[in-house]
# Entry
Amino acid sequence: MIRLSRLQSGQGMVEYALILALIALIVIIALIATGGQIVNLYSDVTATMCSYHVGC
# Structure
């Protein structure tokens, strides 16, 4: 009975790791796809803040 519990626990950990890996892959793909837009947005925000002399 204890052995079966360990096997199920190990299986649960593997499933959890696979889900985390899938989420990480989706996040990486999303960042690659929108990376240029994020850089442009950051530059625009920085330029706007500098024009008002805030945080430069």
In short: The chain is about 90% helix and 0% strand. Residues 2-51 form the longest helix (50 residues).
